[in-house]
Amino acid sequence: MASTADIRNGLCIKYNNDIYKIIEFLHVKPGKGPAFVRTKLKSLTNGKVLDNTFSAGHKIEEVRVETHEFQFLYAEGDNYNFMHTETYEQISLNKDILDAPQLLKEGSTVKVIINAETEAPLSVDMPASVVLEVTYAEPGVKGNTATNATKPAKVETGASVNVPLFINEGDKIKIDTASGAYMERVKE
């Protein structure tokens, strides 16, 4: 058993007969009353996110998990196929447990969190950012800008991302996987 002092991002816990991963947390010590921890929990079975508040010292049941590196091979409908980088064992996961499946490029490496007791995959952690090539972008018109003007662009995985007007087809861009937002242009 763990307590609220052990709460950190990425911790997997049992709560309300389900397994949740803590995505965000904030320790709050109000001037009046007891301290508490405000958390944002993501269900690893159905992907729903809920806000929850634990009082200070509350006991939480931690789930023992293992993290393994897997390489993304290909998508087949709603199933995404991965290969373990050390044992070459292949697994197929539903796209619901992926955070940003539209940004997953074939051959990229991800971390798969597996429940140590049941050997069942719980979630897939993407890298913080990915570099993808722009396959389609409307041409930007000179002088057609105010501040921070953006246009939609398609990247090689088929995802649509809002990018600044100076981005053209063939450019490589870095995308934040948490928000799906453009970060910067990458020069190679």
UniProtKB/TrEMBL annotation:
Record-level GO BP terms: peptide biosynthetic process
Pfam families on file: EFP, EFP_N, Elong-fact-P_C
Gene3D superfamilies linked to this entry: 2.30.30.30, Nucleic acid-binding proteins
Protein's recorded name: Elongation factor P
Keywords, in A-Z order: Cytoplasm, Elongation factor, Protein biosynthesis
Record-annotated Translation elongation factor P/YeiP central domain positions: 67-122
CC terms in the record's Gene Ontology section: cytosol
Pathway annotation: Protein biosynthesis; polypeptide chain elongation
InterPro entries membership: Elong-fact-P_C (IPR015365), NA-bd_OB-fold (IPR012340), Rib_uL2_dom2 (IPR014722), Transl_elong_fac_P/YeiP (IPR020599), Transl_elong_KOW-like (IPR013185), Transl_elong_P/YeiP_cen (IPR001059), Transl_elong_P/YeiP_CS (IPR013852), Transl_elongation_fac_P (IPR011768)
Name of the gene encoding the protein in the UniProt record: efp
Residue intervals passing through the bilayer: none
Primary location class: cytoplasm
